[in-house]
Amino acid sequence: MGLSRDLAETREFFTSRAEGWEDRHPDDDVLFKWAVDQLDLSPGDVAVDAGCGSGRALSSLRAAVGTQGAVLGIDATPAMLLEATRLGRKSISVCALGDVGRLPVRDDCVAGILAAGLLPHLPNPVGTLQEMARVARNDARLGVFHPIGRRALAARHQERGAHAHDMNIDPHRIGPLLAEGGWTLELLDDADDHYLALAVRNG
Protein backbone atom coordinates (compact mmCIF):
# COMPACT_ATOMS: atom_id res chain seq x y z
CA MET A 1 0.00 0.00 0.00
CA GLY A 2 1.38 3.43 -0.94
CA LEU A 3 1.65 6.46 1.27
CA SER A 4 -1.27 8.83 1.63
CA ARG A 5 -0.83 12.17 -0.10
CA ASP A 6 -0.44 14.03 3.20
CA LEU A 7 2.07 11.56 4.60
CA ALA A 8 4.07 11.58 1.38
CA GLU A 9 4.16 15.40 1.35
CA THR A 10 5.16 15.52 5.02
CA ARG A 11 7.94 13.01 4.42
CA GLU A 12 9.18 14.96 1.40
CA PHE A 13 9.14 18.23 3.38
CA PHE A 14 11.15 16.86 6.30
CA THR A 15 13.53 14.69 4.27
CA SER A 16 15.15 17.72 2.67
CA ARG A 17 15.51 19.43 6.06
CA ALA A 18 16.49 16.54 8.34
CA GLU A 19 20.25 16.94 8.32
CA GLY A 20 21.21 19.61 10.82
CA TRP A 21 17.56 20.14 11.82
CA GLU A 22 18.37 21.01 15.43
CA ASP A 23 21.20 23.33 14.44
CA ARG A 24 18.62 25.61 12.82
CA HIS A 25 16.60 25.79 16.06
CA PRO A 26 19.29 25.72 18.78
CA ASP A 27 17.19 27.40 21.48
CA ASP A 28 14.39 24.81 21.48
CA ASP A 29 16.00 22.41 23.98
CA VAL A 30 14.79 24.29 27.06
CA LEU A 31 11.21 24.38 25.80
CA PHE A 32 11.25 20.68 24.92
CA LYS A 33 12.43 19.82 28.43
CA TRP A 34 9.71 22.05 29.89
CA ALA A 35 7.05 20.31 27.76
CA VAL A 36 8.23 16.87 28.89
CA ASP A 37 8.12 18.04 32.52
CA GLN A 38 4.42 18.84 32.09
CA LEU A 39 3.71 15.15 31.39
CA ASP A 40 4.53 14.44 35.06
CA LEU A 41 6.22 11.13 34.32
CA SER A 42 7.64 8.87 37.02
CA PRO A 43 10.53 6.37 37.06
CA GLY A 44 9.46 3.10 35.45
CA ASP A 45 6.81 4.69 33.21
CA VAL A 46 6.38 4.12 29.48
CA ALA A 47 6.60 7.25 27.33
CA VAL A 48 6.05 7.83 23.62
CA ASP A 49 7.33 10.64 21.41
CA ALA A 50 4.81 10.61 18.55
CA GLY A 51 6.37 12.18 15.46
CA CYS A 52 9.74 12.31 17.20
CA GLY A 53 11.68 13.75 14.27
CA SER A 54 15.36 13.95 15.19
CA GLY A 55 14.51 12.84 18.72
CA ARG A 56 14.99 16.12 20.52
CA ALA A 57 12.68 15.17 23.41
CA LEU A 58 13.99 11.64 23.88
CA SER A 59 16.74 12.47 26.38
CA SER A 60 14.28 14.39 28.57
CA LEU A 61 11.79 11.53 28.37
CA ARG A 62 14.51 9.04 29.31
CA ALA A 63 15.57 11.18 32.27
CA ALA A 64 11.94 11.32 33.45
CA VAL A 65 11.25 7.55 33.31
CA GLY A 66 14.72 6.42 34.31
CA THR A 67 16.53 3.25 33.38
CA GLN A 68 13.58 1.11 34.45
CA GLY A 69 11.16 2.92 32.13
CA ALA A 70 10.68 2.62 28.38
CA VAL A 71 10.86 5.34 25.72
CA LEU A 72 9.62 4.97 22.15
CA GLY A 73 10.17 7.54 19.44
CA ILE A 74 8.21 6.97 16.24
CA ASP A 75 8.37 8.96 13.03
CA ALA A 76 7.35 8.53 9.39
CA THR A 77 10.45 10.13 7.84
CA PRO A 78 13.52 7.85 7.51
CA ALA A 79 15.86 10.82 7.13
CA MET A 80 14.75 12.22 10.48
CA LEU A 81 15.44 8.89 12.18
CA LEU A 82 18.87 8.82 10.56
CA GLU A 83 19.49 12.23 12.10
CA ALA A 84 18.32 10.87 15.46
CA THR A 85 20.81 8.01 15.08
CA ARG A 86 23.61 10.44 14.19
CA LEU A 87 22.84 12.39 17.35
CA GLY A 88 23.02 9.24 19.49
CA ARG A 89 19.35 9.09 20.36
CA LYS A 90 19.03 5.36 19.63
CA SER A 91 21.27 4.66 22.61
CA ILE A 92 18.63 6.04 25.01
CA SER A 93 15.38 4.95 23.36
CA VAL A 94 13.74 2.82 20.71
CA CYS A 95 13.41 4.85 17.49
CA ALA A 96 10.99 3.29 15.03
CA LEU A 97 9.89 4.12 11.51
CA GLY A 98 6.12 4.07 11.39
CA ASP A 99 2.75 5.75 11.35
CA VAL A 100 1.64 7.45 14.57
CA GLY A 101 -1.88 6.37 13.66
CA ARG A 102 -0.85 2.73 14.18
CA LEU A 103 1.41 2.63 17.23
CA PRO A 104 3.33 -0.61 17.88
CA VAL A 105 2.32 -0.54 21.53
CA ARG A 106 -0.14 -2.64 23.56
CA ASP A 107 -3.29 -1.18 25.10
CA ASP A 108 -3.36 0.79 28.35
CA CYS A 109 0.36 0.95 29.13
CA VAL A 110 1.66 4.42 28.25
CA ALA A 111 1.92 7.09 30.95
CA GLY A 112 2.82 10.05 28.75
CA ILE A 113 2.81 11.00 25.08
CA LEU A 114 4.49 14.00 23.53
CA ALA A 115 3.16 15.09 20.14
CA ALA A 116 5.52 17.89 19.15
CA GLY A 117 4.87 19.52 15.81
CA LEU A 118 2.51 16.73 14.84
CA LEU A 119 -1.14 17.79 14.59
CA PRO A 120 -0.73 20.37 11.78
CA HIS A 121 0.59 17.54 9.59
CA LEU A 122 -2.53 15.39 10.12
CA PRO A 123 -5.55 16.11 7.90
CA ASN A 124 -7.81 14.07 10.20
CA PRO A 125 -6.19 14.00 13.64
CA VAL A 126 -9.06 12.36 15.54
CA GLY A 127 -8.09 8.83 14.50
CA THR A 128 -4.51 9.42 15.63
CA LEU A 129 -5.69 10.88 18.93
CA GLN A 130 -7.89 7.80 19.41
CA GLU A 131 -4.91 5.56 18.71
CA MET A 132 -2.91 7.45 21.33
CA ALA A 133 -5.81 6.99 23.75
CA ARG A 134 -5.81 3.25 23.03
CA VAL A 135 -2.24 2.82 24.24
CA ALA A 136 -2.60 5.25 27.16
CA ARG A 137 -3.40 4.49 30.77
CA ASN A 138 -6.49 6.18 32.17
CA ASP A 139 -4.37 8.76 33.98
CA ALA A 140 -1.95 9.33 31.10
CA ARG A 141 -1.10 12.78 29.84
CA LEU A 142 -0.74 13.99 26.26
CA GLY A 143 1.20 17.10 25.37
CA VAL A 144 0.43 18.69 21.98
CA PHE A 145 3.46 20.93 21.78
CA HIS A 146 5.25 23.41 19.53
CA PRO A 147 8.44 25.28 20.49
CA ILE A 148 7.10 28.28 18.57
CA GLY A 149 3.95 30.36 18.83
CA ARG A 150 0.89 29.23 16.91
CA ARG A 151 0.76 32.26 14.59
CA ALA A 152 4.50 32.16 13.93
CA LEU A 153 4.20 28.45 13.15
CA ALA A 154 1.49 29.07 10.56
CA ALA A 155 3.62 31.80 8.99
CA ARG A 156 6.63 29.46 8.87
CA HIS A 157 4.59 26.73 7.21
CA GLN A 158 3.34 29.18 4.60
CA GLU A 159 6.83 30.54 3.95
CA ARG A 160 8.33 27.07 3.53
CA GLY A 161 5.50 25.68 1.45
CA ALA A 162 4.49 23.04 3.98
CA HIS A 163 1.15 21.34 3.42
CA ALA A 164 -0.13 22.02 6.94
CA HIS A 165 -3.45 21.92 8.77
CA ASP A 166 -2.74 24.68 11.26
CA MET A 167 -6.40 25.01 12.28
CA ASN A 168 -6.00 21.72 14.18
CA ILE A 169 -4.34 23.62 17.04
CA ASP A 170 -6.65 26.64 16.98
CA PRO A 171 -7.78 27.45 20.56
CA HIS A 172 -11.41 26.93 19.57
CA ARG A 173 -10.72 23.60 17.84
CA ILE A 174 -8.15 21.80 19.95
CA GLY A 175 -10.48 21.04 22.89
CA PRO A 176 -13.22 19.41 20.79
CA LEU A 177 -10.61 17.50 18.75
CA LEU A 178 -9.04 16.10 21.88
CA ALA A 179 -12.43 15.21 23.35
CA GLU A 180 -13.42 13.33 20.22
CA GLY A 181 -10.11 11.48 20.41
CA GLY A 182 -10.64 10.36 23.99
CA TRP A 183 -8.81 13.10 25.88
CA THR A 184 -9.81 15.95 28.21
CA LEU A 185 -8.04 19.27 27.75
CA GLU A 186 -6.61 20.43 31.10
CA LEU A 187 -4.37 23.32 30.07
CA LEU A 188 -3.93 25.45 26.96
CA ASP A 189 -0.78 27.57 26.96
CA ASP A 190 -1.10 29.49 23.69
CA ALA A 191 1.91 31.80 24.12
CA ASP A 192 3.77 33.97 21.64
CA ASP A 193 6.87 31.75 21.74
CA HIS A 194 5.40 28.28 22.36
CA TYR A 195 2.21 26.25 22.34
CA LEU A 196 1.11 23.49 24.69
CA ALA A 197 -2.26 21.77 24.93
CA LEU A 198 -2.04 19.40 27.88
CA ALA A 199 -4.69 16.69 28.06
CA VAL A 200 -5.55 13.71 30.24
CA ARG A 201 -6.83 10.35 29.03
CA ASN A 202 -10.55 9.97 29.66
CA GLY A 203 -11.40 7.25 32.18
Entry keywords:
single chain, alpha/beta, seven-stranded mixed sheet
Describe this structure as you would to a colleague:
Helix content is 34%, strand content 24%. The protein has helices at 5-15, 28-37, 58-65, 78-86, 125-135, 150-160, 171-180, and strands at residues 46-50, 70-75, 94-97, 110-116, 136-146, 183-190, 195-201. Strands 3-2-1-4-5-7-6 form a 7-stranded mixed sheet, with helices on both faces. The relative contact order is 0.15. The model has no long low-confidence stretch (mean pLDDT 91).
Oligomer: single chain
* Count of alpha/pi helices: 7
Provide the β-strand percentage band: 15-25%
| Strand neighbour order, sheet with most strands | 3-2-1-4-5-7-6
Largest sheet: 7 strands, mixed
Low-confidence stretches: none
H/E element sequence: HHEHEHEEHEHHEE
Task: Note the gap between the termini.
Answer: 35 Å
Q: How many beta-strand runs?
A: 7
Structural class: alpha/beta
